[in-house]
């Protein structure tokens, strides 16, 4: 299940993928109810047909173009019925709801929908975790994350409520935009925050000549110290800003690869959501999340 939202007109849209399994699809509903519906004025439920039996996400282009008109109408009708069911399951209260269906590649249709709505967020239900503890996004979620020019929120199975949020913050423009965007969501003041700056330590290259190694180690230490001071200053500014707005927040500096460190910190703090900034895809729509 994928959701797209337009902040300018406060119009929030939901996209349900017929090719998704129910657990992954429904995992995003609690997050949507908590963070989005309280500030929404409209909900769009969209299903994408046809269901792909091979990849679960990306129907072969030859199949899409070769299907008969009758089969296409039938698939679209079934998808629209599914959209109506999902609209009922979402239980948006008094919000107006529109249910519709599209035909094509789910990733492309989600991206088109988010662009046409001038969406501000896309919410996707992930499949869960593998045996190695990795979050399995599924090919639709992965494709949307790679190519979306809008913020993407990925909800994992079992996520019923967000009580703590970890923010990956390095003071960059994308990180600051991520903080600004959080302010547009319906986050209760009881939610706790941890702002984290992850430093990837600098070390002398392997094979540095022995005659230069002592100097190289000293310079590496000085670089890492500067990074630490920069991280402290940035986190102090952020925590003061959020506390002034009434949020409960603490901060932490860690060293290592950013992704695993943020994930480990989220587990330690019991956080249900990790927020990071990302660059927009280039004109060639390459993956530029970092």
E-strand count: 12
The main β sheet shows up as: 6 strands, mixed
Broad shape: globular
Query: What's the rounded overall pLDDT mean?
Result: 78
Contiguous uncertain segments of 5+ residues = 6-22, 130-135, 284-290
N-to-C SSE string, H for helix and E for strand: EEHHEHHEHEEEHEEHEHEHE
| Estimated structural class | alpha/beta
Calculate the terminal CA-CA distance, rounded to whole Å: 24 Å
> With helices defined by DSSP (H or I, 4 residues minimum), what is the helix count?
9
How much β-strand is present in the residues? 15-25%
Task: Detail the topology: elements first, then pairings.
Elements: E1 2-6, E2 11-17, H1 22-26, H2 29-36, E3 43-49, H3 61-66, H4 69-90, E4 97-103, H5 106-116, E5 121-125, E6 128-129, E7 135-136, H6 139-147, E8 152-155, E9 164-168, H7 173-182, E10 192-199, H8 210-244, E11 248-255, H9 258-269, E12 273-275
Parallel strand pairs: 2-3, 3-4, 5-8, 9-10, 9-12, 10-11
Antiparallel strand pairs: 1-2, 1-5, 6-7
Helix pairs in contact: 5-6
